[in-house]
Amino acid sequence: TPKTCIFDLDGVVVDTAKYHFQAWRRLAEFVGVAFTHEDNDNLKGVGRMESLDYILAKSPRLFSNKERLALADQKNDDYKELIKGINAAELLPGVSDTFTWLREEGWKIGLASASRNAPQVIKSLGVEGVFDYVADAGKILNGKPAPDIFLDVARALNSAPTDAIGVEDAVAGVTAIKAAGMIAVGIGDPALLHEADVVMPTPEGLIECFKLMQAKA
Ligand code: BG6
Ligand code: MG
């Protein structure tokens, strides 16, 4: 029976995916390359330096390590400016009720975010107390689509991967959940997230989905 729920953060718990998008697009403009919505979909869930390198690969120029680090900082400064004022009002619809329901039903709740800003974001949202474990993105060897971060959370929560459900808005994230041997719930476009076991447009349907899974198990 699934009794562990592992959440992605950006685009699942809170609508910060749009801020990452804005900051990356600004960075792309700064180095003179295009940044499309398709690029953005490819970068969801992908770590900061990997995302930067994806964008820089579109440029004919070569960038030194020093330049890369400066550009990554520039994007992150932009991003931090964009999320400065976020609060619980930016939790996605259904998230708060889902946390309450999971707690009442005795589930464990983990966070598997690739973002190094995750601890600050959950604090701003006032939900840091909800999580039994928050993965440290800086300590995960292989980023999404590798399963490492989801396996790290399951291990920390003493949960078998087969007893865990992962919730993701990113293609790379859904791939990571499936590679970890977990049930994947996608939030977003079913055509894009076709690897997921279930896809819903927003987290509003999560409680019903978990109830069905509990009943079936
Ligand atoms: C993921 C986001 O959660 O974290 C990506 O989906 C982001 O858009 C990545 O690039 C890394 O975040 P940060 O905050 O460490 O730069
Ligand atoms: Mg995400």
UniProtKB/TrEMBL annotation:
Cofactor(s) listed in the protein's UniProt record: Mg(2+)
CDD domains: HAD_BPGM
One Pfam family of this chain: Hydrolase
SUPFAM superfamilies hit by this protein: HAD-like (SSF56784)
Top enzyme category: isomerase
EC number, UniProt record: 5.4.2.6
Keywords: Carbohydrate metabolism, Isomerase, Magnesium, Metal-binding, Phosphoprotein
Lineage top rank: taxon: Bacteria
Entry's Gene Ontology molecular function annotations: beta-phosphoglucomutase activity
Reactions it catalyzes: beta-D-glucose 1-phosphate = beta-D-glucose 6-phosphate
Protein family per UniProt: Belongs to the HAD-like hydrolase superfamily. CbbY/CbbZ/Gph/YieH family.
Name of the featured protein: Beta-phosphoglucomutase
Naturally occurring in which organism (per UniProt): Kordiimonas pumila
